[in-house]
Each structure stands twice: as C-alpha cells, then as structure tokens.
Design a protein that fits this description.
single chain, 125 residues, OB fold (Dihydrolipoamide Acetyltransferase, E2P), 6 strands, 38% strand
Length: 125
C-alpha cells in the first residue's frame, strides 16, 4: 500500500528537518572560553639558545626602544632584543615597569644575532 500524498510530504519534511539539524550541529563552532596554550613557556636565557622558529612565551619587561620595531626585553635571567610591530602593540601604552607576556618565534637577524619576533603581547596584571 502506497502512503498518501499528505503523509509522504510529512515524512519528507521530518527527514529534511533531521538532516538539517545534523548539518547545523556538525558545523557549530567550538565554545571553549579558557586559555589557549601557544608556545613553550621559558626564560630569556632559554629562548636565546632555542632553535630558530621555536615558538616561545616569555614574561618580563620591555626596557628600551632600540630602533624601528626593535626593543630590549628583560626577565630575571637576562636580556634579549625583540621585534614588536605596531599591530602587536594595538595602541596599548607599555612602560618599563609594565610586566608583559610575549608569544614569539625565535629568529636570527642579518648579523646572526638571535631575537624574538613577537606575535602576541599581553599585559600581565
């Protein structure tokens, strides 16, 4: 026995609803709101001997502007220079007494000196 036209439409509508719900559920974005671990937390001393392209996280103070986008950065273990571009600063005022956390890649300049190329700057409260 063949289902009637109204029940066939109801069956198709129900099937379409379940398929659409499954598609939307599969495409839902993640809802995690906690911290994201990026890079390896280390000291300036450790970062200075890490291989080039290592992603690191260091915490300390920007202590001087050297030139263009280059700054001196210090933590209790030592000092290195870092490259912080204008978009990374995001207009935030940072003084020598402002503690910051930098997520950066270890890089080498044209002279072979190691520096950190900063991707993220966070002010530490």
């Amino acid at each position: 026995m063949k289902p009637s036209a109204p029940s066939r439409r109801a069956l198709l509508a129900t099937a379409a609803t379940f398929m659409a719900a499954g598609l939307f559920a599969a495409r839902a974005p993640a809802q995690f709101v906690g911290p994201t671990q990026t890079g390896i937390g280390m000291t300036v001393e450790e970062a200075r001997i890490a291989p080039v392209e290592t992603k690191v996280v260091v915490t300390g103070w920007v202590v001087a502007h050297l030139r263009e986008d280059y700054y001196a950065f210090r933590d209790p273990t030592g000092e290195t220079y870092v490259r912080i571009t204008e978009p990374v600063w995001a207009g935030r005022p940072v003084g020598t007494d402002t503690k910051v956390r930098l997520t950066a890649n270890v890089a080498r300049d044209q002279r072979g000196l190691v520096h950190l190329s900063v991707e993220v700057l966070e002010i530490v409260e």
